[in-house]
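Q: Structure tokens for this one, please.
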Amino acid sequence: MERLTTLAATGRLPLTASRRWIAPATFLVLGLVDILVFGRYAHHGDATFAFSQPFAKVTVPNLKVPAAETAYALGAATIALAALRAAVDGGKVFRRVSIGLVLAFFVISLLCWAYAGSVNTFNVINQFQGTLADSIPLILGALAGCLCERSGVINIAIEGQLLLGAFAGAIFASAFGVLWLGLIAGSLAGGLVGLLLGIFAITYLVDQIILGVVLNVLVSGVTGYLYDKLLVPYANTLNSPSTYLPIKIPLLGDIPIIGPVFFDSTLFLYITYVLIAAVQVGLFSTRWGLRVRAVGEHPAAADTVGISVRLTRYRNVILAGLVAGIGGAFLTIGSVGSFGKDMSSGKGYIALAAMIFGRWTPLGGVGAALLFGFTFELQSILSTINVPVPSDFLLMVPYVATIIAVAGLVGQVKAPAADGQPYITS
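A: Here is the predicted structure, written as tokens:
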């Protein structure tokens, strides 16, 4: 009893018997799918994986594997991991590594089934490049969520910040013909939504979850109305921005496999690198970060030592909006080159899920965002090779992965103690 009390006080309760078997059961199901679906129904022949692009200075040979046999082997390995997880609980590292291996085995088996005996090759470089591109708004949204919630403000409005950032980025880049102006305008638009969140949540103590949803609906309605009244009739002048071209970093961009992925992309990816480092170091290695986390954990104690709770929260929600607005600008001037109604398509909510999956840490949120970005790109590639799966089901994959990750894989997580709690000075 004393041990349970200690564990409860530290937030590390042992797994219940029912939860103890979730991972082994999930592993078993995925292993059986690898064998009975991907292995059994794969066409005869090999699946080919390419690890370089045709124009690369340094090329890596393609990898051909027997599709059905590979799926069978990976399915058996997954079932073995299920048995191991059932027999040995292991530590945190073991649990995470086993989950990563099982997911990797499942994806490889899926690709073997999809490309078995086909003249098409699965280009790993294209998949990873697309993953990073799809992940940029998710990563920036997750960082925005960390900045807000570490200070004690729930940020459901990430969706609205992305959408308004995309809208402002398209208009200003189109009207003035300057991409930098579109980037700045998109960031400021996200900051405006953050300011509204701060005014109503911090000053007027409005319920933060309801407020976030209302702001999302407000932004959706306003941008939809302005799209019909301004962007459609004046599309050539207000909704036809140019887009950022890839910037290849000399030498680094020529490294096989990782060079084209990490060092040959648009300015948005390099900005994302900087923001990831800044938020991670800022929150956990600076005096400012210590004060932010103190406000998010125990605002009354922070107030007693002279930290302004309201000012700290205001700064963070506005800063978070500026970061999310950059992710919104990417959707237009970094990607498709035009604004469309509700083009954020739930990415703000997925970014919020990534933050939770990442346990309210910047690097954890980045990892989860990359996972969701991988599913976005994978369903996009699979839809182009006419796999025998309805397109509607493929479009569901990223959202289903989000639900499974948050509901089944995230486990017991602990938000900042004062997250969502308004603070009233005595």
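A few notes: Residues 1-15 have pLDDT under 50 and may be disordered. The chain is about 70% helix and 5% strand.
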